[in-house]
Design goal:
Layout (H helix, E strand, L loop, with lengths): L1 E5 L4 E2 L9 E2 L1 E6 L16 H14 L11 E8 L7 H15 L9 E9 L6 E5 L3 H6 L2 E7 L4 E8 L6 H23 L16 E6 L5 H5 L4 H10 L2 E4 L4 E6 L2 H15 L7 E10 L2 E7 L2 E6 L20 E9 L5 E4 L5
Parallel strand pairs: 4-5, 15-17
Antiparallel strand pairs: 1-5, 2-3, 6-7, 6-8, 8-9, 10-12, 11-12, 13-14, 13-16, 14-15, 16-17
Helix pairs in contact: 1-2, 6-7
């Protein structure tokens, strides 16, 4: 299973490596007792779940798109229903297909396989086993897991019960694993899904990014978050802003995402003479009306600029909540930006 979310939902890391504070791709591997015919209480992940999940995660990291190409946090979950072989390699294959089905533009298809070994009395007396079963893993001398694409290897894990391996054994195991990976991809994976879907599913969150001047971040956020929360309440999207000015807008409805983007652009852009805008009447005074173009971004229309006909009272023409089009007339003698309704072409 593959789940997509905005980058703000990436896993937070608290470790000794200060440069790595979050993890964008997470692979969770579940190995319930019933998969091997046992019964026991599930008390959270053990060594097997953590280790196998880390291996499958490492196998797919090299083919994932960059954050700029695909600004999502990604989580895959592997549920093991039955086990009589390498479920971590099965998880790698299944997770790769799940990513493609979810519309994640991975660079290449990844498959994995486990190679076993049975040795005799001499170094030349050995047999390599491809895709070992549980019995062969238990009585054998090696569990050599290899994942990769058709172009190379992405991850390796090896467990051995003997003192060491000769060069021919290692070379033979790598060659066997490559042959098996190609077979799995061609006969099992590609017939089901050969390339990533062109876009994410209809129920996946859609994300759009824009860059703004970092000095304008405060305008978008507003006092105590008033402005950004107003945009979120109005459009139902999720907004994340980095210190560099990268704004990510996430939501299900593309129209609401576009609406939020436009509101942010209005907030961070200075009004230009001749620019036509749509504003909502939020306050009426004797001398004119105040319009809100975006949360925290307002302007005034003088009573003389409301209509081509004489207006005695602003309330005769405009009501609170009215949405009207105005044109920017530039700055007046006091340096204030003025707008006009009657001059809209």
């Amino acid at each position: 299973m593959c789940t997509l979310a905005p980058l703000s939902d990436a896993q937070k890391l608290d470790g000794l490596n200060e440069t790595e504070t979050s993890k964008r791709y997470m692979h969770h591997y579940n190995f319930p007792a019933y998969s091997v015919g046992e019964t026991k209480v599930s008390r959270g992940p053990g060594r097997r779940e953590i280790g196998h999940g880390a291996l499958a995660e490492r196998a797919l990291l090299p083919v994932l798109p960059s954050e700029d190409e695909f600004p999502y946090a990604i989580r895959t979950v592997s549920e093991t229903f039955e086990s009589n072989g390498s479920t971590s390699m099965a998880s790698t294959c299944a997770s790769c297909m799940s990513l493609m089905a979810a519309g994640v533009p991975i660079k290449k298809m990844v498959a994995g396989i486990s190679c076993g070994l049975v040795t005799g009395e001499t170094d030349d007396d050995y047999v390599l086993l491809t895709d070992i079963q549980g019995l062969e893993d238990f009585f054998g001398d090696m569990d050599f897991k290899v994942t990769g694409t058709d172009a190379g290897i992405t991850a390796i894990q090896m467990d051995i019960k003997i003192h060491g391996l000769t060069r021919p054994i290692v070379e033979g195991a790598i060659a066997r694993c490559r042959e098996a990976r190609m077979f799995i991809m061609e006969t099992c994976m590609k017939p089901a899904i050969s390339e990533p879907r062109p876009e994410v599913g209809p129920y996946a969150p859609k994300i759009k990014q824009i860059m703004i001047d970092p000095s304008k971040i405060g305008d978008v956020v507003g006092q105590k978050g008033k402005t950004i929360n107003a945009i979120i309440d109005e459009t139902g999207v999720k907004i994340d802003i980095t210190d560099e000015g990268a704004v990510s807008v996430c939501g299900i409805d593309a129209e609401n995402i576009e609406k939020a983007i436009n509101l942010i652009k209005i907030i961070v852009t200075d009004f230009e003479e001749g620019q036509i805008l749509e504003g909502k009447v939020v306050s009426i005074k004797e001398f004119g009306a105040f319009l809100e173009f975006a949360p925290g971004k307002e302007g005034m229309v003088h009573i003389s600029k409301i209509s081509k006909e004489r207006v005695e009272h602003v309330e005769d023409v405009l009501k609170l909540g009215d949405v009207v089009k105005v044109v920017c007339l530039g700055k007046d003698k006091m340096g204030r930006i003025s707008f006009s309704i009657k001059d809209v072409q």
